Amino acid sequence: MRLPIRYRIILPFTVLLVFVGVVGTGVASARLASAASAQFDASLLHSSLQAHQLLSQLDANRMADLRRATDTVGVPEALGSGDLGMLDRLLIPVTANVADASIQLYVLDARGNEVLGIKGTPAGPSSIDISGATAFAAEPTVVKVLAGVGGTDRLVFLRNQRPEPTVYWTGSVRNAGGRIVGAVLVGEPLAEIAAGIPGSIFYDLSGTRLVTTVRTPPVASSTIRKAITPVNTVGADDTQSGHTYGAVFSTWTMRGSQFGFLAMQANADWLVSAAAQVRWILTLVFTAAALLTLLVGTATASRLTRPIELLVRSMQAVSAGDLKQRATIASTDEIGYLARTFNEMTASLDEKTAALEETTFASIEALARAIDARDPSTFGHSARVAAVSMEIADAMQLPSADREALRRGALLHDIGKIGVEDRVLRKPGPLTAWERDEMREHARIGYDMLKGLRFLQPSLPGVLHHHERWDGNGYPTGLDGAAIPMLVRILAVADVFDALTSDRPYRQGLSIEAASVAIWNEAGRQFDPDVVTAFLARRPAIEASLRNMRTAEATIVTPEAA
Known about the structure:
- This protein folds into 3 domains: 72-194, PAS domain (Beta-Lactamase, 2-Layer Sandwich), CATH 3.30.450.20; 205-267, no CATH class; 349-561, Hypothetical protein af1432 (Orthogonal Bundle), CATH 1.10.3210.
- It is 56% helix and 14% strand.
- The chain is built from 18 helices and 11 strands.
- It starts with a helix and ends with a helix.
């Protein structure tokens, strides 16, 4: 079914508007979501670093408490003589000076038996009844301290005991002669340590959770544990009970010994909500703009095409012989007048269609120029490629219709780069294999963008095939030799020549002479030899044209830079 003229006019704009809106909304949403995600990850990593700093400060504080206990005057003598009353009087002040109420202090004799225990409470420190206790006698770390192995006097260890895991700092007590007469342990429950680090979760080496300060702690799976190193953290995302969380895992190390793993978790609901909100806002803005544009366009098209549609219906009625339906058409003279009017309006419609096509092309060309401008090193590239292509076309005496198709194809050949990410498009160094594959997609993306516009059909081969090679090693389809359309062969030479003579972040552009030699060397391999011959014949004109264009571009760019 043929569409009414008004819809045929508005349809290309509708397709382009929808495409640009969908792509623009998707790209903008992805960029904003990526930026918010990076900010969230950076915040999590900062929390992890702060947690380790707090653990280091805690370790320093407890070692200072331990040092005060072992170095208090009279402690070695009282411990050596078994004077528990004296030990109690000497060490309770040490415990009282510790800010944490639940600090534990134990004194062991030379055999590892507990002889004194002091526990801090909100009301003050008090002694613990530990008569006959030997809980620490077999602890490897305590054994090392009591034996003075390796000259180590002060160590730290984790004891996963009931009712709660506890971290202990232990140091030997030496008499005046340097002999070890016992040891002191300063312990702090892991739950209290975690309470000072909001959002923290502690795990042992097997991944078993020891203490958590969050309601929905993540699982320290074997995959995560294997990926964690002392210099490498691992991120993990999780969704529980309709909420999204992010976590970062790291090693839990104190004084060179790894006790397990430490995770810092944060709620990511705001991140998901923000991304959804941005997506909805962009969608609503695009939808409103699209509806307004379509409404205005449809109204304008209807106003312009209404006389034509009325005329067509009248002519159909006349040709069918149903003059009763058209009382206004009463004589042969009137029919002749109507025919002349129809011819005049048809000519006017052709003019308006051509103007509409030119307006559509100008809009698409502006988009292509904007894409060139995403990277300062490619600013004006498409316009220069078009100029060089026209010079080669003159040398090869192409018909005017082919010249126009070539010009449009050259101006739009890189429009598909709208679908290539900036990090790939603007990368200053060599591309990886994956990045090269993504960059090569721009030819198909550009073709898919424009293939629905009938008036651009002659130019589409240039958009799709401008990276094909004469020897068949190009992309995206591997065409070779004469199978490559002539307009594409011309465009390929012009495209490479401008790229060679343009500066890039990773190299300086070649001179006209050097670039021409490079083009000549590729004749019969990358390029059609006949096109290369035509290019070289027009080189003086090409050089003059490019010099003028680059001067004009510099005039445009310089004020903005200032």
